[in-house]
Amino acid sequence: MVAIVMIAGVVTVPMMARSFEGSRLRMSTRALVRMHRWARSRAVLEQRALRLEIDPETGRMQILTGRSAPEDDDPRSTAVRRVRSVEEGIDIAEVRVGDDPAVEDGPVRIRYTPGGRCDSFSVILRDSEGHEMTVAVDGVAGKAVIE
Q: Residue 67 in 3-state DSSP?
C-alpha cells in the first residue's frame, strides 16, 4: 500500500509542478491584460492621457499620469496610479510597440489617449521552462488577444 502511494506521488508531483508554472504564466498574462484595460478605461473616464510602462528587466508594469512625451522623465510631472509585477519565475521576454523592433533595454511606454486609443503593442511572457504566451493589443479597437 505504501509503495502504491509513493509511486503515485512520484508521478503526480512533477505534473503538479508543471501545472503551477503554467498557472503563474497565465496569471501574469491576465495581469498585463487587466493593466491595459484599466489604463484604457481610466484614460477615457478621466479624459486624460495615461501611460502603461512595462519594464522587462524588473517585470514591473505601472500606469502613470502626467506628461506623455517619452523623453519626459521628470518625476515631478508624473504620478504612479497602479503597479503590478509578473509572477515569480516569469520573464517579460519581448515588448514591441507598433511596427518598431523589440525594445532591448529599459522600460517601454505605451500611450493611452482620452479618446480610448493607445499605441498598438505586443508582449511575450515566458516561464522558466520556455513556455510562452503573447498579448497583442490593437491600439484603435483596444482589443487584447492572448496567443
A: coil
